[in-house]
Amino acid sequence: MFVLPEGLPIELTPLSFLIGNWEGSGVIVANDKEYEFHQRIEFSHDGQGALTYVSSVSLDDETKTVLPSELGYWRIARPREGFDHGPALVPGIGESTIKSHEDLERYRNDTKGFDLEVSTLHPGGVAELYKGYVKQAQIHLASAHGVAFEGAKAYRHSTRIYGLVEGALLWAWDIALPGGELKSHASARLERVG
Known about the structure:
Radius of gyration: 17 Å
CATH superfamily: Calycin beta-barrel core domain
CATH class: Mainly Beta
Number of helices: 1
Shape: globular
Oligomer: single chain
Structural class: mainly beta
Order of helices and strands: EEEEHEEEEEE
Number of domains: 1
Largest sheet: 10 strands, antiparallel, barrel
Low-confidence stretches: none
Number of strands: 10
Helix content: under 10%
């Protein structure tokens, strides 16, 4: 049975099913080949209004080649208020206006879920911003903006879907390379390991 983590801000309860460590395997489609991989993901929180996301991946073959990791933040989309920290290290002022689940309800969208904002950073010099929504234990994301250093290997657009199915976290990632259409890139099934 899943128990809400201690100190979890109310605004993160729609994402609470993600919190913890996940591990499993999947398939990458690249260069007209399929590669099996092993992945470990951690979703955690520090009492602020965002989940921290860390993903590490390696090929599941004799080479065990380490593939690019990802770091990011996942949060419910809402206007930033005085109590929110920032910009930079500027501390927020006052208390959160989201003190109850009734307060959180005002951010529910037309799908009866909650809009999301996800930022992801890749070690190859690419940063992505995703918009989407969470509804029950399913998440849909589409890239809204991305930036890359000159010379970075970037793609034009991507979508990601995550869902909790019979206790496992399943996800799929489609990307559109420059000049190309959206195509399946990777998918995995992960089990909770902590």
